[in-house]
TrEMBL record:
Keywords: Membrane, Transmembrane, Transmembrane helix. The keyword Transmembrane applies. InterPro entries: Class_I_gatase-like (IPR029062). Coiled coil: none annotated. It comes from the Bacteria. The chain crosses the membrane at residues 12-30, 37-56, 665-686. This is Glutamine amidotransferase domain-containing protein. PANTHER family: BLL2462 PROTEIN.
Length: 690
């Protein structure tokens, strides 16, 4: 209760009246007048009445003490044992808080929400958000339920503004052990076909057996090495980048009995394969209109080194001119087709015929080159149907189509076959969906017997136009017309010759994106996209194996002919494995070095310095024997917490209040004030009347 004044007149007027009354009272007392004391008392009461003294009483309500409880729901807490311990601890805290109505618990579950590419346990970010709307004086403490693997623990000095104890209830067992593998250093890029080196390390967290570990290394799903590694020691590994684009190296270490999880027994590294310039050998049998179309296309690709020869003077053209007077370059057949044939990624025979330039043995050498993994493209013209056709050489062993000796010379629109609409080489060619196709006509094709492989383009009456086939480890394509140059010249509007030629060449050189039967996966943030290419029937469901080991079936829907697709929103971070039929694909979602998987054993050491600095405690929920420990009781404390109580969770109770209302009592208001004044003046008059 407090006393305040609310004067009826300005304070100056009240003061003047008071001074005047004081002077009169002093004069009367000095002169010894009768009744001077009563006059002074009456004047004093009058001045007090004008000053209007009021007693005020505030109605205040005590505020609650806020205690945030941060529950760790990260992936390292996902085991059945730790989840059960967490749930039991949370239920016990709720029961204890129910006995203290002045304590307001704020329960926040913090974990990976599936949106971060680099998942980590960030409990203190959650703590800051939980108390952002209350002053620090109302915060009585914080309780963390976690395994101790927290990745945003602040420095003790930076947490000095939090003037309340931080307690941690740690899940897991104190004798936990875990074996994991990590890539220490590795290149991000590598040239296809060249040797690369990286280093990996097996790490034992906790008290492990310290025995050698067997590490299996896979590249794009294929096993390339099996190593014995000593825990804690860096070990080098050499490998060759097999293809352009993403290459996934997967390291898996054999599990050890007793380790808490096998989720981090696998590690991945993504290396981007960069192709050196592809070497292409183009041999034109004679000058013709379509020769320049091939040359311009290949020369325009900066990733291709082109070696081009045109046979201008075959052996039968002998006119007696001495060799040393000719301006022509001799065709280096032995150097190209014997000594350096394996250095070429693709050989193109453009309207080439057997005219004695190449010895017959060299055709067999080319056939072996294909069967050992090389690529051969035959762009055929009328000569392929003649007596000098290369189909009559040992090269016929790898050719998918044998000429009948006839030419089809009726105008036609090149059309995609049923397989061609699905095949990635020809799928979606611009203008193919119209009927007739929205491109120019051609006027002749080489007639062949029923070909092997896939006929992806057809001429009139379904006759083969473009045939793709595999031969041993290599690939062969036959374009059974020499009139693609009409598209290049814009005849009747032209056509997509650049796309067709380029895709055919890249398919021959085994570009993964152009495989007719392929299963691939890629990520867009946290969205996983699965693509299944096939020239057959619908492939059915794909099986998705999550990093946690769980599996789910995914329906693939047709996005376009020959391409089936599914998109899935993911929550887990790590390596996903997709299988369909006999195909498999790997893709990593999120950062490959996410902190959440670097260490998973529970620990009390990470939070102990902060708890000690704030007078909090860190204690396990399970004893070394494996038995559950009783949850400690809460200890509300008024004022600052000076000491640590290891057996209880101390909480600093706030003394903050909120004003609900004010009760006022004027001393000179109403009948009481008037009566007091009348009494004083009546006494004064009575005294003077005597």
């Amino acid at each position: 209760m407090t006393l305040q004044f609310s004067p009826f007149l300005p304070w100056i007027a009240v003061a003047l009246i008071g001074i005047a009354g004081l002077a009169l009272a002093a004069l009367g007392l000095w002169r010894g007048l009768h009744g001077a004391f009563l006059r002074a008392l009456a004047l004093l009461l009058l001045v007090l009445a004008l000053a209007n003294p009021v007693f005020l009483q505030e109605d205040r309500e005590a505020l609650s003490t806020v205690v945030p409880v941060i529950v760790d729901r990260s992936q390292s807490q996902g085991s059945e044992e730790r989840t059960a311990q967490t749930d039991a601890a949370l239920a016990g805290l709720k029961e204890r808080f129910a006995h203290y109505p002045r304590i307001e618990p704020r329960i926040v579950e913090a974990g990976d929400d599936g949106t971060s590419d680099t998942p980590s346990t960030r409990l203190f970010d959650a703590l800051t958000a939980a108390i952002a709307d209350v002053p620090r004086s109302r915060v009585g403490g914080a309780i963390l339920i976690t395994d101790g693997q927290v990745h945003d623990i602040p420095e003790t000095s930076a947490f000095s503004s939090f003037d309340a104890p931080v307690h941690a209830l740690v899940t897991g067992r104190p004798d936990e052990f875990d074996r994991r593998i990590e890539v220490v250093s590795a290149p991000r890029f590598g040239i296809v076909g060249e040797e690369q080196e990286l280093k990996f390390r097996v790490v034992d967290d906790g008290k492990g057996p310290d025995t050698p570990a067997r590490v299996t290394v896979r590249l794009n799903g294929n096993e390339i090495a099996s190593e014995i590694a000593q825990p804690g020691t860096e070990q080098p590994l050499g490998f060759t980048v097999p293809r352009g684009g993403n290459n996934i190296l997967e390291f898996s270490v054999d599990p050890v009995e007793g380790e808490i999880t096998t989720a981090n027994n696998r590690a991945v590294h993504v290396i981007e394969g960069i192709r050196e310039n592809l070497r292409v050998l183009l041999v034109s049998g004679e000058p013709h209109a379509g020769e320049r179309a091939w040359r311009n296309l290949l020369k325009s690709d900066t990733a291709i080194d082109l070696v081009h020869f045109t046979i201008l003077r075959p052996p039968e053209k002998q006119d007696g001119t001495p060799i040393n007077e000719l301006s022509l370059i001799a065709f280096p057949t032995r150097e190209l087709f014997v000594d350096k044939i394996n250095e070429f990624d693709l050989i193109i025979f453009d309207r080439y015929q057997h005219r004695g330039v190449l010895p017959i043995l060299y055709y067999d050498n080319i056939a072996q080159y294909v069967e050992n993994g090389g690529a051969l493209l035959i762009a055929a013209g009328p000569e392929h149907a003649g007596n000098d056709s290369i189909a009559g050489t040992p090269l016929a062993a790898v050719l998918p189509a044998t000429p009948t000796g006839a030419m089809n010379e009726a105008p036609f629109y090149p059309r995609l076959s049923e397989q061609g609409r699905k095949h990635p080489v020809t799928r979606g060619l611009e203008g193919a969906k119209d009927e007739p196709p929205h491109w120019g006509r051609w006027f002749r094709t080489v007639d062949v017997e029923r070909p092997e492989g896939n006929v992806v383009m057809e001429a009139n009456d379904g006759k083969p136009l473009l045939v793709l086939n595999r031969a041993g480890k290599g690939r062969v394509a036959m374009l059974l017309s020499d009139q693609g140059w009409l598209w290049a010249r814009g005849f009747e509007g032209g056509g997509p010759h650049v796309s067709l030629y380029r895709r055919t060449a890249h398919w021959l050189m085994q570009e993964p994106a152009l495989e007719e039967e392929a299963l691939t996966a890629r990520t867009f943030g946290r969205t996983l996209q699965i693509n299944r290419q096939t020239i057959g029937d619908a492939p059915g469901e794909a099986v998705l194996k999550l990093p946690s080991g769980a599996t789910q079936r995914v329906a693939l829907k047709e996005a376009e002919p020959g391409l089936f697709r599914a998109e899935i929103a993911t929550r887990e971070t790590g390596l996903y494995e997709i299988t369909n039929d006999n195909l498999s694909a790997l893709v990593h979602v999120g950062a490959v070095d996410a902190p959440e998987f670097k260490a998973t054993i529970s620990t009390t050491q990470t939070l102990k310095p902060l708890a000690e600095a704030t007078k909090g405690t860190v204690r396990r929920l399970v004893a070394e024997s494996g038995e559950a420990v009783s949850l400690p009781p809460l200890l509300p404390v008024s004022g600052q917490i000076r000491t640590v109580d290891e057996n209880r969770l101390s909480l600093r109770m706030t003394d903050e209040t909120v004003l609900r209302g004010i009760n006022s009592l004027p001393l000179f208001a109403g009948f009481a004030g008037v009566g007091l004044l009348l009494l004083a003046f009546s006494a004064m008059w009575y005294r003077e009347g005597r």
